[in-house]
Please model this.
Amino acid sequence: MSIHVLPDDVIAQIAAGEVVERPASVVKELIENALDAGASAVDVMTEKGGRQTIRVADNGTGIKADEAALSITRHATSKLHSIDDLINIQTLGFRGEALSSIAAVSKMSITTRHQDEAAGTFLVLEGSRILKQQAVGAPSGTVVTVEHLFFNTPARLKFLKKETTEKRQISSLVTRYAMAYPRVRFRLEQDGREAFSSIGSGQISDVIMRVLGLDKFRQMIEVSGEDTIRETGQRIGVYGFTSMPDYNRADRSQITLFVNGRWIQDTSLTYAVTQAYHTFLMTGRHPVTILLLDIPPEEVDVNVHPTKAEVRFRDPNIIFAAVQRAVRRAVIEYAETPLLRSSRQPLTTDTFDDHTSRWHSGIDSHNAEQLDIAWELDSPGNYSHQHQTGHDEIYNPGMILDSSNAPLKPRTLPALRVVGQVGAMYIVAEGPVGMYLVDQHAAHERILYEQFMDAQQRKAHITQHTLEVQTIDLSPAEANLIEENLTTLRAVGFEIEPFGVNTFVIRGVPAILANTDPVEVLEEVLDDLATGQAPGQTSIEERIIIHVCKRAAVKAGQILSLDEMQALMRQLERCESPHTCPHGRPTMLHLSSDHLAREFGRK
Ligand code: ADP
Ligand code: MG
Model:
């Protein structure tokens, strides 16, 4: 189909609006154009989070010389003729708005050669004006370069997020498209450094492995489901990967859905995915998921949102059920076959032993932990056993007894006498005016937090060098996040250095984490940081510290000796804010003597 300007009646019916909100939206539109042009390789390059430069090069069909100028005209498209075509639209674009909108707010150039033509075209534009057009030699395909985005709209420029945030948005966008189009070779270069590449093997697993890193990929389960729509007999396909229940996140941002090759945001379908984990995941936790839905085009209306990020389903319930069923089946199958699980993980070769042996191989300990859940519920006597074999930190009782060498602080609680432990979770203590029930984990978090903050202020040495240098492989988005927060992480005692593409070496951790798996801690911290931060909330540094303390604190479920409990109480008695943990939850309940007397009818 040749490029033409859409007739007014069609324009009137397509969902119009702003498509260029930020650098990532430019990248999205250009990638979609490349995919629509049938490219098998898409190369994305950005500088300064896309503010300075965005370049997307593809090896697709290219644009004919006599249509090049038209392509940047508003509502010029080769993908749609009449409104009827919309019902069966097979391309990602159809409005002819992207190139013109991007051209309007940037300095853009296009080099393109149509596969059937001998010469290519070179176009230079500035804020929609064509400054130059000439014939050039070029390989078949298209290269669009967008520079100085929003140079003529200072208001929008002002609203752009930090450069690192934009960078992260772009890498998470590119990796998502790479997962949805495994046949296409994607490459992303940010500020001269390759952040991501896929090989175009056609296997989605190959891409996910590169996006999540090998360790995380081993925790993904394949999803494959098919439903038929009863009335029409047509097929709905659900295919992709979703995380094992233990690998989860605090937000839904890692649930990615593509419908017929289109990345969509859909609250209800996202919910269907989380729903499928019912009883496998704690409320408030969400899996990491990529699902590609294959739905008859007439079941989906794509013309509802300017950036095409939302779609409307003719019958949303059918789609919801198909997604939920497919994911549920995968999760249950995984959960019901603990023995199979290890055989599904072929990666116990020597190469990876180096990396994991310190904490067992990731998968074995995972199984151990799963099986121990039953122990934990009805056989508390086995806790100590569990904590020696589990992959979690081996609890070091010295940790509570370890009094910091800081000067003794004033008392904030009366002297408390330990009576005993309840449920391996609470310490019962007695004070001058009643009884205290103390949450051992919350209380220890509070103690460690205040010690940590003290040490931090005194600039006391807080790094513990790891015996072996650990490396951590991350997704491009996580790698950006680490880089963004490297100074802060170092300030709290992590010794981390970049080590090749998306890999870092960990040489040291905050001293109180001496007995924990540094990779795991760091992953959790990243997870936490990725959920973003509302203005006015605690600083990033404090958030990291809070997390570190949570990790280092004794867990619920750990039997404590009398000495340990007494040490814990002695330290809590001198905390500045002994009544709450750093997250703000209570550390203790106090039942006053008066209250007890009243309850027992003695008063
Ligand atoms: P749309 O994608 O909605 O048609 P765009 O403004 O994104 O609108 O692009 C306008 C037209 O320019 C497209 O219809 C297509 O014909 C052509 N075009 C844009 N980018 C490419 C590309 N990378 N390769 C080939 N043709 C392209
Ligand atoms: Mg387009």
Observations:
- Residues 338-398 have pLDDT under 50 and may be disordered.
- The pocket of magnesium ion (ligand 2) is lined by residues 29, 32-33, 93, 98 (CB under 6 Å).
- DSSP finds 22 helices and 26 strands in the chain.
- Residues 416 and 431 are 5 Å apart (CA to CA).
